[in-house]
């Protein structure tokens, strides 16, 4: 990173909190894409179907204004930016089997996730934990269930 010190001299340094800087840069890039209309805001959808009850959680991430719009079955709820980012980070930990993904909204009982690609991935079959020591799928479903 290049910056000017208090005396106006250009200095080159590496931030100690590199991961935070990386995520901040990614946020800026996504905000630029949104503002320039190159990309729509990021959207994550979760669908839970039990017997005759459908629950749809829709999260829209507006990086340009650092806001998460959370809708549960069409009703808007509050969600702070950092909690939303934490959830998005979880969503991108597991692997997704695109051979099992569905374009149409599922109808049968189960839990499904659209990670922003417009395809529905079933938690039982289409989402795979990569790290055996961390159950990302369980953490995602717990976090989403807490939003209901």
Structural class: alpha+beta
Q: pLDDT average, as an integer?
A: 92
What share of residues is helical?
Answer: 25-40%
The value of Rg in angstroms is 18 Å
Structural domain count: 2
> What is the element string, with H for helices and E for strands?
EEHEEEEHEEEEH
- Cα end-to-end separation: 42 Å
The dominant shape is elongated
- SS summary, helix count: 3
Beta percentage is 25-35%
* Strand line-up in the sheet with most strands: 6-5-4-3-8-9
Poorly predicted parts: none
Biggest β-sheet strands, sense, barrel = 6 strands, antiparallel
Number of strands: 10
Task: Kindly describe this structure.
- The chain is of the alpha+beta class and 148 residues long.
- The chain folds into two domains: 1-39; 41-147, no CATH class.
- Helices cover 28% and strands 30% of the residues.
- The chain has three helices and ten strands, in the order ββαββββαββββα.
- The protein has a six-stranded antiparallel beta sheet, with helices on one face. The chain has a two-stranded antiparallel ribbon with strand order 1-2.
- A hairpin with a 5-residue loop joins strand 1 (2-4) and strand 2 (10-12).
- The longest helix has 18 residues, at 18-35.
- The protein is elongated.
- The mean pLDDT is 92.
Name its key features.
148 residues, alpha+beta, 2 domains, six-stranded antiparallel sheet, two-stranded antiparallel ribbon, 3 helices, 10 strands, 30% strand, elongated
Summarize the structure.
The chain has two domains: 39 residues; 107 residues, no CATH class. It has three helices and ten strands; from the N terminus they run E-E-H-E-E-E-E-H-E-E-E-E-H.
């Amino acid at each position: 990173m290049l910056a000017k010190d208090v005396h106006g001299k250009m200095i080159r340094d590496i931030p100690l909190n590199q991961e935070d800087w990386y995520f901040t840069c990614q946020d800026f890039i996504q905000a630029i894409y949104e503002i320039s209309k190159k990309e729509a805001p990021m959207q994550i959808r979760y669908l839970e179907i039990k017997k005759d009850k459908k629950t749809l959680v829709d999260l829209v991430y507006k990086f340009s204004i650092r806001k998460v719009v959370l809708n549960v079955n069409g009703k808007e709820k509050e969600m702070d930016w950092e909690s939303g980012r934490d959830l998005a980070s979880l969503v991108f930990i597991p692997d997704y089997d695109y051979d099992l993904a569905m374009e149409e909204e599922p109808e049968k009982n189960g839990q499904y996730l659209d990670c922003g690609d417009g395809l529905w991935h079933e938690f039982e079959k289409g989402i795979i934990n990569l790290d055996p020591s961390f159950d990302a799928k369980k953490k995602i479903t717990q976090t989403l269930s807490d939003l209901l």
